[in-house]
Q: What sequence folds into this?
């Protein structure tokens, strides 16, 4: 096969052969195979050119996929959708690492800063990085400065925010919902308990009786046309218990609605 014409296009080179074959290749392929006009190439070399074109085109597409921070594992998953062999996929990954397009340490730092701004805890962040197949030594390096003091400060800020958004909740509701949120965010039970103890004065300022009256009247309004007598009373008690109110306080409050 003989190259009879080479035309430079916007993103690639158009290569025409004397057997009417036409292929589009990236500049990397032109340089690698020294493609010039009137050069004669074998069938085997032609196949190699097409394979290299797929390889470099995949690299180009993968770089576009890296428009935001990605882990090596993300890239490997992305490449499984390509037409490259497993060995060639590995070569693409190696190339991107070598050219510093992907770097698990830098990407981990990016996500660390993001999750810290979201008040996530150590366990959440560490588990996230493990699921992304980040190496243990990189995880340790990334998290080395995220000590208990910083975690405790973040958790305390989370509690302050939680307290503001629970203006009409009982003490138990505030405590239990905070425990659940903090645990899901990746904080240890010991650290959660410490924050609750440190903020005990703020928790004690919650006026359960005032809030109970509000919720009692709301429940009564909701159920009074559906139930009556004992059934109405039990329905209200059940509803208020789920909100974290004390049983004796609920019973004492029934005088408000003459039940």
A:
């Amino acid at each position: 096969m003989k190259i009879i014409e080479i035309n430079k296009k916007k993103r690639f080179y158009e290569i025409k052969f004397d057997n009417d074959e036409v292929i589009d290749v990236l500049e990397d392929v032109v340089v690698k195979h020294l493609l010039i006009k009137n050069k004669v190439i074998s069938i085997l070399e032609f196949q190699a050119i097409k394979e290299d074109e797929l390889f470099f085109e995949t690299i180009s597409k993968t770089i576009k996929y890296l428009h935001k921070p990605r882990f090596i594992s993300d890239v490997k998953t992305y490449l499984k959708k390509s037409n490259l062999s497993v060995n060639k996929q590995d070569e693409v990954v190696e190339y991107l690492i070598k050219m510093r397009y992907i770097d698990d340490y830098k990407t981990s730092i990016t996500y660390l800063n993001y999750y810290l701004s979201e008040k996530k805890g150590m366990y959440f962040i560490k588990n996230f990085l493990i699921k992304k197949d980040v190496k243990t030594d990189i995880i340790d390096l990334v998290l080395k400065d995220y000590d208990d003091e910083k975690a405790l400060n973040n958790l305390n800020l989370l509690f302050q925010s939680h307290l503001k958004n629970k203006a009409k909740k009982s003490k138990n509701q505030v405590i239990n919902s905070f425990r659940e949120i903090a645990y899901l965010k990746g904080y240890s039970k010991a650290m959660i308990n410490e924050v609750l103890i440190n903020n005990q004065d703020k928790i004690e300022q919650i006026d359960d009786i005032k809030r109970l009256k509000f919720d009692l009247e709301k429940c009564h309004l909701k159920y009074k046309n559906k139930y009556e007598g004992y059934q109405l009373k039990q329905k209200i008690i059940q509803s208020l218990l789920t909100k974290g109110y004390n049983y004796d306080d609920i019973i004492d409050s029934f005088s408000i609605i003459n039940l």
